[in-house]
TrEMBL record:
Domain Methyltransferase stretches: 46-142
This protein's name: Class I SAM-dependent methyltransferase
GO molecular function, one term: methyltransferase activity
SUPFAM superfamilies assigned: S-adenosyl-L-methionine-dependent methyltransferases
A biological-process GO annotation: methylation
Signal peptide (UniProt feature, chain positions): none
Keywords: Methyltransferase, Transferase
InterPro entries in the record: Methyltransf_25, SAM-dependent_MTases_sf
Domain of life: Bacteria
Amino acid sequence: MPETSVARFYDELADDYHLIYSDWDASIRRQGEVLDALIGQDRAAVLDCSCGIGTQAIGLALRGHSVTGTDLSPRAAARAVREAARRGLSLRTAAADMRRLPFPDARFDTVVCADNALPHLLTEHDVRAALAEMRRVLRPAGLLLISTRPYEDLLRDRPSSTPPQVHRATEGGERTVTFQLWRWHDDGEHYDMEHFQLLPEDGEWRVEVRRTTYWALGQRRLAGLAADAGFVDPEWRMPQETGFFQPLLVARTGE
């Protein structure tokens, strides 16, 4: 994975990331509620190893969990701390690669890797390394929660774009527009993504275009890699079942 380019993508997006949501605060609360129900215990020690600006980490902290966040983007992780503080929460974060987590063994009850972050890893070797690290920092019977795009469907259809999303950052505020263009590689599994944001500025539109690459890692393959890493009974839970916005891979470490 080209670490610097992925970190740069999210560093550049950090200030505007909340604008991809119609209501970011509502998404924080909703995602925190769903993940909390899956965790199923009070005050769990949770690592969000792709915390971004804090959507899932803050949501879980609001539910009473002790959350630590890491992200490849220092700018995103720093914003997560500020956003948590604005809500009266304490959130510890660090800039770190999920393939090299800076924590001792068996430190956490739950590891979360949401929002299609794992597919930034472009080779099986790198995915195995990340899963091994998540397994290492989990306690016995620890819980793993990974969300990705619905790649089984996307690998069949190989779309070239996403529909434009039009949102208002505040009630009655100015509109913003977000959409993506995808260019599939010849292998049919990897794709380059151009992320477009149209932002109002002085009566005109400011256009931000940010680029990154993903591996469309199918669900069966990812579940198999999780099992190879030592996770028990990995299974996919679909949005219609959980209420989460993406499919979730749920697995545990052994006792």
